[in-house]
C-alpha cells in the first residue's frame, strides 16, 4: 500500500523530468550537423532506456497472469525512471553540460509535477 502511495507521485516527477530532458536532448540532437551522429545518439538513447522499459512491460504482463500486488505502480515507476535515466544520459553524450541547466530542469519538473499533483489532490 505504501508503494502505491509513493510510486504515483515519484513516477510523475520522473516522467516530467524525462519529458523536459527529452525536449532538451531533441533540440540538441537536431542541431547536430551529421545525420550519422544523430542516428547514433538515438540508438544510445534506446539502448539505455529500452531494457528497463521492457522490464516494466514484463512486470505488467506478469501482473495480468499472477495478479501481483502493486505491480502497475511499480511498473510505472520503473518506466518513468528508465525514460529519465535514458534522456539524462543522452544529454551527457552530447557533451558536458553546466549545473545551471540541470538545476533548472530539476526545479521546473518538480514544480510542474507538484502543480499537477495539487490539481488532482495527491498532495
Description:
The chain is an all-alpha fold. 85% of the residues lie in helices and 0% in strands. It has helices at 2-30, 35-66, 71-93, 99-119. Helix 2 (35-66) runs antiparallel to helix 3 (71-93). The model has no long low-confidence stretch (mean pLDDT 87).
Question: In total, how many beta strands?
Answer: 0
- Mean pLDDT value: 87
Q: Number of helical runs? A: 4
> Which parts are unreliable, with pLDDT below 50 for 5 consecutive residues or more?
none
**How are helices and strands ordered from N to C?**
HHHH
Shape, per Cα inertia axes: flat
Distance between the termini: 16 Å
Biggest beta sheet summary: none
Q: What structural category arises from helix and sheet content?
A: mainly alpha
- Fraction in helix: over 70%
Percent of sequence in beta strands? under 5%
Computed over alpha carbons, the radius of gyration is 16 Å
A few lines on this structure:
The chain has 123 residues and is mainly alpha-helical. The chain has helices at residues 2-30, 35-66, 71-93, 99-119. 85% of the residues lie in helices and 0% in strands.
Element layout with pairings:
Layout: H1 2-30, H2 35-66, H3 71-93, H4 99-119
Helix pairs in contact: 1-3, 1-4, 2-3
What are the main properties of this structure?
mainly alpha, 4 helices, flat
Amino acid at each position: 500500500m505504501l508503494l502505491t502511495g509513493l510510486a504515483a507521485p515519484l513516477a510523475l516527477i520522473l516522467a516530467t523530468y524525462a519529458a523536459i530532458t527529452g525536449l532538451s536532448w531533441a533540440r540538441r540532437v537536431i542541431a547536430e550537423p551529421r545525420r550519422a551522429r544523430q542516428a547514433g545518439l538515438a540508438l544510445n538513447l534506446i539502448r539505455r532506456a529500452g531494457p528497463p522499459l521492457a522490464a516494466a512491460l514484463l512486470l505488467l504482463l506478469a501482473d495480468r497472469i499472477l495478479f501481483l500486488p502493486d505491480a502497475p505502480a511499480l511498473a510505472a515507476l520503473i518506466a518513468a525512471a528508465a525514460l529519465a535515466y535514458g534522456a539524462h544520459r543522452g544529454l551527457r553524450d552530447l557533451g558536458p553540460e553546466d549545473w545551471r541547466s540541470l538545476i533548472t530542469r530539476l526545479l521546473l519538473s518538480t514544480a510542474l509535477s507538484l502543480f499537477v499533483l495539487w490539481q488532482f489532490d495527491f498532495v
